[in-house]
Write a structure and sequence with these properties.
The chain is α+β, with helices and mostly antiparallel strands. Helices cover about 50% and strands about 5% of the residues. Helix 1 packs across helix 3 and helix 2 crosses helix 3. The longest helix has 21 residues. The protein is elongated.
Length: about 850
């Protein structure tokens, strides 16, 4: 009965407005194909409704109401897709007709769980009617143009007849997946026929060009009802990589990408989306580092000093796939956006007797006994043999290790940027805030233990805070890690200090520029230093530790990681790298006891599954240190073109938008690179595997071999001598005993608490460079760098009087104008001649 009653109402709405004729009722109701009894019953009901209907609107009222809709459609004739609610809002006056009345006048497309969509009726059938054939032109040229115009009209009508989703953006990791499906078949056929005909090779790339052109055409036909994921992706790529509003708007004006406003709307929608859930059985670790940058401003203000952080999730598939991103048309104010990325800074009350003061230095050799020899791993030994046997095709060490580990299983990680903590990074308040932020994120991931990495200065303070935490505090579940990248840089600086003056400088200058060698030996030129070490591995014992440390990080070998650090410790002490000597010692004894402090499931993930290292590419031999990850992702993105320091500004809203939207925008950049087939990253082949690099390495090895043939590093005498300059060491030079001296220094601090730990600089080893580049202070030779010393004096002096006082002391071991560290400077003979004065007086020589 209810169905019949609804049918009666539908019929009533379709009756002429002034009709009450039973015949008219019968005529309309007969179109419903009802049974005879239902038909008769319907007639009586309809007649009753028509007789008792009061106040039914006249046709003039409906026409007047529809006039607002018609005017709206006429003014927006370039568009062809509207929601029914948009049209209903255009009705003016007191009378608003029923929505079903409006549907009788306009074509309505209804979709499940969506607002009704209004489209214009397709008129393509008129073009293909008999009349089209009757209008054929006799002139050949005119007929060609007429065919083109009619074909364009067909394609245009097909474009205007498609319903597109204007309320949601696609998934960021599938942003351009369905771009071809958005193109009507007629347009696709037209472009494919025109562009790909007679093309040979790379047909898939030509089809992608057809799709890109099709999106430009659709956007031009429907500029407000179609948002091209492809053009939006291109605009997002330019926004992320270059941050240029002008570039985006220029390309948008030419139809090549989305306008800047639409990109900002997309970014705004990304930062207001719901956070992606991280599934259980995943592993999370956090990295924090200084984000200090001086911004070029007119008044000198606006410098940026904050704590930056990242959240690394392994495996990356444990992050729940996001839903479609709702499009937020109304851009939120800067203050609202700033609140999303604001982390309130907490206050820390520093203790006096807890923390590091309560932790004593342990004998790491007692925790794990290691052999004194530094032995290479099996793959490393095979590579060394290949180089020794002069095999031409042997690639560099990294490339070789990647090839032998190509089939080893691994897990990739996903890097998520965390909001900046806008406070000085070295403050205890800031470090405490970062620790608790990481703890809260770990809880959301259902992970009991929180692993956090800092570089050395922040590590020392963070470990002090965790050590002083109350047993019931969440900080007791925090494991603080020392950044391996900066530790390795410091260790390479130790190598440079111990080997200073031994001839290694002259050896490296055969390959590297003179100014680079100094930075290599100081450990600052990390990439060059690692490659130089690979060339000199058979002559230097400590270089094996560098390789072992890299192997541990890249392969996720936890035991090798700890064993290598343990063997590094004596060299840190001997080379006066005391900050890393004490920090690495504390870190090592913490990590040796880690299995007793954290749940077994977290320990297994962190160590045996190799999750302590982070992989961002599809390779096993791609693990990198956690503090290097933040340098390569967050910090590099901030400082490169398109980053925060390159013109975007450092306001709170800008920082929040940049960090919270980074993951989504980075995913889209990768999608655009994959779609276009143009990658901005390195190739799949490791750089050391390339024939050009192998040839270059072989050439460099040949240079070293020729130089060492004339400078024997193993002379048959009892003197310690520089193979570069021939300088003979005196009895004070003890750099060849760096390991033994470092062990003695380590034994002296066992049992002392870390809070009061101190070292004596005079216990350090003396390198060969101190023979010629040292001065005596308190009866102890102190090596100095005259240029560095002069630069520091220029910075610290307050007046010219201070400079005169500084220069009253002996600051150089030799006249810098005449000598260098290698020997006497080469002069110009013609300048020596000008130093003589001509003789003008006569003189008489004796017989």
């Amino acid at each position: 009965m209810k169905k019949l009653w609804d049918t009666c109402l539908d019929v009533t709405m379709n009756l002429p407005l002034q009709s009450s004729s039973v015949s008219e009722i019968y005529l309309i109701s007969s179109q419903l194909e009802l049974d005879t009894i239902e038909h008769v019953f319907l007639m009586y009901i309809m007649h009753y409704l028509m007789e008792n209907k009061k106040g039914r609107p006249t046709g003039d009222k409906v026409d007047e109401a529809m006039e607002g809709i018609y005017s709206f459609l006429k003014e927006n004739s370039e568009e062809c897709q509207f929601s029914i609610s948009e049209l209903m809002n255009q009705i003016n006056g007191d009378f608003v007709p029923h929505i079903r009345t409006v549907k009788n006048f306009i074509l309505i497309i209804e979709k499940q769980k969506r607002d009704c969509v209004v489209c214009f009726r397709n008129t393509g059938f008129k073009i293909l009617s008999d009349k089209w054939y009757e209008e054929k032109k006799k002139d050949y040229h005119e007929e060609r143009l007429r065919v083109i115009r009619e074909a364009a009209a067909i394609i245009r009508e097909d474009i205007r007849g498609v319903v597109y989703d204007k309320n949601n953006y696609p998934l960021s990791d599938e942003f351009v997946k369905d771009v071809e499906a958005a193109v009507p078949e007629s347009l696709q056929v037209f472009l494919t026929t025109m562009i790909t005909k007679d093309k040979r090779g790379a047909l898939e790339q030509w089809k992608k060009k057809c799709t890109a052109i099709a999106h430009s055409i659709i956007t031009a036909v429907r500029p407000r009802s179609f948002f091209s994921p492809l053009q939006l992706g291109v605009g997002t790529f330019l926004y992320k990589k270059f941050g240029s509003k002008s570039l985006i708007n220029i390309l948008s004006a030419m139809g090549f990408c989305a306008p800047y406003r639409e990109i900002t709307i997309f970014e705004n929608s990304c930062i207001h989306r719901a956070e992606s859930e991280i599934l259980e059985n995943s592993f999370s670790q956090f990295v924090f580092d200084n984000a200090d940058f001086n911004i070029n401003t007119l008044d000198g203000h606006g410098t940026f000093h904050a704590m930056g952080g990242i959240h690394c999730v392994t495996p990356y598939t444990s992050i729940q796939r996001e839903k479609k991103i709702p499009r937020i048309v109304e851009i939120k104010s800067a203050s609202v956006v700033a609140q999303l990325g604001m982390v309130p800074v907490l206050s820390y009350n520093k203790h006096k007797s807890a923390g590091l003061q309560a932790i004593t230095v342990a004998d790491v050799e007692a925790l794990r006994q290691l052999p004194s020899e530094i032995l290479p791993t099996i793959p490393d030994l095979i590579w060394l043999y290949g180089k020794w046997s002069c095999s031409v095709g042997i690639p560099g060490w990294n490339g070789f290790m990647e090839s032998v580990t190509a089939n080893v299983p691994y897990e990739r990680s996903k890097v998520i940027c965390l909001p900046f903590i806008n406070a000085p990074p070295s403050d205890y308040d800031t470090i405490l805030t970062s620790l608790l932020e990481a703890v809260e994120n770990s809880k959301r991931c259902s992970q009991k233990t929180t692993f956090i990495t800092f570089d050395q200065p922040l590590y020392w303070k963070a470990r002090d805070i965790v050590g002083a935490a109350d047993p019931t505090s969440d900080l007791k579940n925090v494991v603080v890690r020392l950044g391996g990248f900066h530790l390795l840089v410091s260790f390479m600086g130790s190598i440079g200090m111990i080997m200073s003056g031994s001839g290694v400088e002259e050896l490296f200058k055969l390959i590297y520029a003179e100014n680079c060698v100094e930075k290599i030996l100081a450990g600052h030129a990390y990439a060059r230093a690692v490659r130089a070490a690979k060339l000199w591995v058979q002559y230097h014992r400590m270089v094996s530790l560098v390789k072992n440390f890299l192997e541990a990080e890249r392969s996720g070998n936890w035991e090798l990681h700890l064993d290598t650090i343990q063997k590094m410790l004596p060299f840190f002490h001997a080379s006066v790298h005391f900050l890393y000597a004490k920090s690495a010692h504390l870190y090592l004894q913490d990590m040796r006891a880690l299995s007793e402090k954290i749940p077994i499931e977290d320990y297994v993930k962190f160590t045996r599954r190799g999750c302590f290292t982070i992989r961002r590419s599809e390779k096993f031999w791609s693990g990198i240190m956690s503090d290097m990850t933040i340098e390569q992702t967050l910090m590099r993105s901030m400082k490169t073109t398109g980053g925060l320091t390159q013109g975007r500004g450092i306001t709170d809203s800008t920082i929040a938008s940049w960090t919270l939207g980074m993951v989504q925008l980075q995913n889209i950049c990768e999608q655009i690179e994959n779609f276009s087939g143009v990658s901005c990253s390195t190739t799949e082949q490791h750089v050391d595997m390339r024939p050009s690099r192998i040839s270059r390495d072989n050439c460099d090895v040949e240079k070293l071999d020729m130089w060492l043939a004339g400078h024997n590093p193993f002379p048959e005498n009892k003197e310690l001598m520089s193979i570069g300059t021939g300088v003979i060491a005196n009895e004070n030079i003890n750099c060849h005993r760096a390991y033994e001296i470092g062990r003695e220094m380590m034994n002296k601090i066992i049992g002392v608490d870390f809070g009061s730990l101190s070292f004596r600089r005079k216990d350090k080893v003396l390198s060969l460079s101190t023979v010629n580049t040292s001065i005596t202070i308190d009866e102890s030779p102190v090596p100095i760098d005259p240029l560095l010393l002069f630069q520091r004096m220029c910075i610290t002096k307050n007046s010219e009087t201070d400079l005169k006082i500084f220069l009253a002391y002996e600051l150089a071991p030799f006249p810098l104008s005449l000598f260098t560290e290698e020997g006497m400077r080469k002069g110009t003979k013609s300048l020596l001649y000008n130093a003589f004065e001509p003789l003008t007086e006569n003189f008489q020589t004796g017989d």
